[in-house]
Design a protein that fits this description.
single chain, mainly beta, 8% helix
């Protein structure tokens, strides 16, 4: 009989947040301008979050494009009212001209 696998558990920290709370969070730049919103997360090799997908531009979903940013590019905080806040050091134009992320293949919606 094979030995049982050892499973370690994570102790949730006060500053932690869940992915469901991040979805649709507005993304702002350092000048506090709204530049998009978090649309999805990419989990690389089934193990860790490798990208945060930000929807940029468009109106009511028309003309919107997506940029995949490394998690380290986004600072997440919780406002006093409990809402989420995401900040990146980029402009809307920089995100619009970034390589476009597409929901296709294994990363379909």
């Amino acid at each position: 009989m094979a030995p049982a696998a050892v499973v370690t558990y994570y102790a949730v920290q006060p500053a932690d947040m869940t992915a469901s709370n991040l979805m649709r969070t507005e993304v702002r730049n350092l000048q506090d301008e709204r530049i998009g919103r978090i649309e999805d997360l990419v989990i690389g090799n089934g193990r860790e979050i490798t990208a945060v997908v930000v929807g940029v531009g468009g109106f009511l979903g028309i003309g919107e494009r997506y940029a995949a940013l490394p998690p380290s590019a986004i600072v997440l905080t919780r406002a006093a009212d409990g809402s989420m806040r995401a900040v990146v050091d980029a402009t809307r134009d920089q995100l619009r001209s970034s390589p476009e992320f597409r929901f296709e293949g294994n990363v379909r919606r």
